C-alpha cells in the first residue's frame, strides 16, 4: 500500500513455526528504493491478514488476529491509525 508518498508492505505472521506460539509480531516494511526494510513491528496473535484503508482523510491499517497461544479464538482484531510517523 502507499501512504504519504512511500510504499509499504504489511506481513501477517501467523505463528512462530512451532504450531503452538501464535503471539508473534508482524512487520510493516517500507520500500527504501531498492528493497523493503523493516519499518514497524506490531504485536499480533495468529495474524492472518492486513488491510489498509482511508476514511475521512485519515489512514488506517487493520490486522485480523485469529487466535492466541492459549488456543483462545476469542481474540480482537485491531485497527491502527497513521499519525504521520507510524501506526
What fraction of the residues are assigned to beta strands by DSSP?
over 45%
Instruction: Give the mean pLDDT.
Output: 92
Total strands: the figure is: 7
With strands numbered from the N-terminus, the spatial order across the biggest sheet is 1-2-3-4
- End-to-end separation in angstroms reads 13 Å
Biggest sheet record: 4 strands, antiparallel
Helix fraction by DSSP (H/I, runs of at least 4): under 10%
Which parts are unreliable, with pLDDT below 50 for 5 consecutive residues or more?
none
Radius of gyration: 14 Å
Helix count, DSSP H or I runs of 4 or more residues:
0
Determine the structural class based on helices, strands and strand pairing.
Answer: mainly beta
Shape: flat
Order of helices and strands: EEEEEEE
Amino acid at each position: 500500500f502507499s501512504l504519504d508518498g512511500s510504499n509499504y508492505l504489511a506481513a501477517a505472521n501467523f505463528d512462530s513455526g512451532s504450531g503452538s506460539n501464535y503471539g508473534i509480531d508482524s512487520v510493516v516494511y517500507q520500500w527504501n528504493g531498492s528493497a523493503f526494510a523493516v519499518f514497524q513491528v506490531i504485536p499480533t496473535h495468529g495474524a492472518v491478514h492486513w488491510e489498509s484503508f482511508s476514511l475521512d482523510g485519515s489512514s488506517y491499517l487493520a490486522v485480523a488476529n485469529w487466535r492466541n497461544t492459549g488456543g483462545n479464538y476469542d481474540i480482537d482484531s485491531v485497527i491502527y491509525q497513521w499519525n504521520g510517523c507510524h501506526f
